[in-house]
Design the sequence.
């Protein structure tokens, strides 16, 4: 079983990963709200000032500094 790098409630920042990503998302911050045991390494994140959950891979996220 694979452990999640970011737990629910963790503050994260979006970075460039191995998959194509809209450039306007890079550097945005948010909160991990969903973990999916069937898709390890995938996270549901609500970005600051938004309400929808966005799907990110583990390599597209990093812990928010000073969080």
Sequence:
């Amino acid at each position: 079983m694979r452990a999640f790098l970011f737990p629910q409630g963790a503050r994260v920042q979006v970075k460039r990963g191995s998959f194509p990503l809209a450039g306007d998302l890079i550097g945005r911050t948010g909160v991990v709200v969903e973990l999916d045991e069937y898709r390890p390494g995938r996270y549901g994140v609500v970005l600051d000032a938004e309400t929808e959950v966005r799907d990110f891979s583990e390599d597209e996220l990093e812990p928010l500094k000073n969080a």
